Amino acid sequence: MTSRTHDDVDVEVLVIGAGVVGIYALYRAIEAGFTAQTLEAGDGVGGVWYWNRYPAARFDSESYTYGYLFSKELFDEWKWEEEFATQPEIERYLNHVVDRFELRRHIRTGQRVVSAIWNDGDNLWEVTTETGDTVRARWVISATGGLSVPHYPEIDGIDDFNGEGHHTGAWPHQQLDFTGKRVAIIGNGPSGAQILPAIVDIVEQVDLYQRTPTWTTPLNNAPMTDEKRAWLGDNFEHVVETLNTSPSGFLHPPAGKFSTDDTAEERQAFYEQIWKAPGFGKLTSNYYDMTTNRETNLEFCEFLAGKIRGIVTDPVTAERLIPKDHLFGAKRPPFIKDYYESFNKPNASLVALRETPIVRIDATGIETTEGHRDYDIIVYATGFDFGTGALTRMGIVGRDGLDLSVDWEDGPFDFGGFAMHRLPNFFFPGGPHGAGGGNYPRYSQDQVDWIADTLIHARADGFDRFEPTAEQEESWMTMVETLAPLSIFSAEHSHYYGANVVGKPKKFLLNPGGRAKLHEILREVTSTPDYNGALEATRERVSA
Ligand code: NAP
C-alpha cells in the first residue's frame, strides 16, 4: 500500500502512548503505509506495564488472551512462562513486539504531550510535548489509557513523610528492598491486594489500610506447559475467533446453565468449582444469572464469606474483610493468591478505615483515630483517575474552541468510547466508555481496527477528515446513560463511576452495552451514510 504524504504535516498518523493499545495502533498505521510516529511520556514502552512495576504486578487475564493476535508467528514464538504473566515478562514481551515489527524507530520516548490543538484551516493537529517539540499530524490516536494517571489519597501531611512513599502506578525503576521494613499499604484493590502476599514473608511488619472490603478470590495461576502451548498454536484460528467475538474477550468456557438448573447442594459444589476457576472465570464461567439474579449472587457471596471465615483465623479480621456493601462482581474483583492467608501471618494486620480513619501522615508514619504507627515505606495503592484522567490533562482543544478539560467537567461525552464530535481526526481507543468490563485489550483492539480501517477507507476515497456527528454522539451517550444501571459493575462507589477521586462527577465510565453494542454501532456507522457523510464533509480539503 502506498503512502499519500502531505507537505503540511510531519506525519499522517500521530499515536500518543506506547502501551498495549498504542503499540497496536502504531503497528496498524505503519502496516497500512501511513507515515506515523508515537510520542510516549515514559522512558520505555509498555504503558501501564512500564509504570506498574511493583512486586507481583501481573496479568489477571490469561497471558495469551491479553497479548496480540494479529500475527500467528508472534503468537507461536512468544513462550509465555505462566498462565498469568508477571510485569517483567509483560514488559519484555511488549519490547519484543516493538522490535519484531520494527516499530521502535517510530517511537519517541520521554515525550509527554502537554497540548494538542486542532488547526481547522489546515485540517491538522499541532501536538506539543513537555520538551517543546511540536508535531503536525493529520490524524491523532491517543492511546493514553484509562488507568495511567495515579490517584493519591487526600490525606493531611502526605508530603511530610520522610520514608519511601510510592504509588503503585508510578513505581520506581530501582526495585525497593522490602526486607525487614515496616510497610503500610493504603488501598486493597487489585494493586494493593497483589502486593500484600508478595512482601509479607520478608517485611518486619505490613499493615493493609482498607476502606472498603473487596470480593477477592484466588487467581489460580499455573505454569504454561508445552501441551498448552501446542494446543493454543494448533487452535489459533478458533482462539482468535473466540477472543474476537465473545462478550468478555476470554476463552473461559461458559457454565451452560442457570442457578435454577441445579439443586442447592449442586450449587455449592459448583461454587467450589468456580472458586478454583482461573482469573475472571469466576465471573465468565459462573451461572448465567449470577450477575442478574440478586438471590443467586447473594448465595455466592455467602459462599465466599464462608471461604474468608474459613481462611482467616482471627474472626474479627475475617468479618472486616467481608464486603457488606456490594455483590460479587458489582465492583471489579481482584484475583489474588494467598490474599486472605496473609492476614494469618503474625507480622500482618488489617486497619479498617471505616472504624479508625486516617487522621494524618507525618514524618515517621500514619496516625489513625486509633493511634500512630511508624513506617519505612508507604505504598499508595489508591488507584487512578480512571477513564478521563490522561485526556483531560493533555491540553486538547478541538474545533470551535472545544476545550476537553472544560467540556468534560461534568463527565465525558463521546462516541463509541473513542471519538468525539468537535474533535475531528482525533481518536482515543480505550478511553472512557471504551471497555465494557471484559478483557481490556480485546475491546481496544476492536476500536483500533475500526479506526485503522476508517483511515484506510478515507485515504482510498480521498477524504481527510472524520468526525462523529452530534446525533451519533447523543445516541451513544443515551445508550450509556440508559444501560449504566444495568451494568454488572453497578456499584457506584467505584472508580468505574469516578467515585474514588474527590470532586470528580459521578458518571459511569465503561460501555454498559458491552462488546455487542460497540460492534453494532461500528457496523452501523460504517454502513450508513453518516460514515461517508462525516468523511464527506471535508472532501474539498484533500490535496490529491
Ligand atoms: P482501585 O481498584 O481503584 O483500588 C484503589 C483502592 O484504594 C481501593 O481499595 C480504595 O478504597 C482505596 N482508596 C482510594 N482512595 C483512598 C483514600 N483516600 N483512603 C483510603 N483508601 C483509599 O485501584 P487498583 O488496585 O490500582 O486497581 C485499578 C485497576 O487497575 C483495576 O480495576 C484493574 O483494572 C487494574 N489492575 C489490574 C491488575 C491485574 O491483576 N491485572 C492489578 C492491579 C490493577 P475504596 O474502594 O473505598 O474506594
UniProtKB/TrEMBL annotation:
Record-listed E.C. numbers: 1.14.13.-
InterPro entries: FAD-binding_Monooxygenases, FAD/NAD-bd_sf
MF (Gene Ontology): monooxygenase activity
Pfam family membership, one: Pyr_redox_3
Keywords: FAD, Flavoprotein, Monooxygenase, NADP, Oxidoreductase
Keyword Oxidoreductase: yes
PANTHER family tied to this protein: L-ORNITHINE N(5)-MONOOXYGENASE-RELATED
Record-given protein name: Flavin-containing monooxygenase
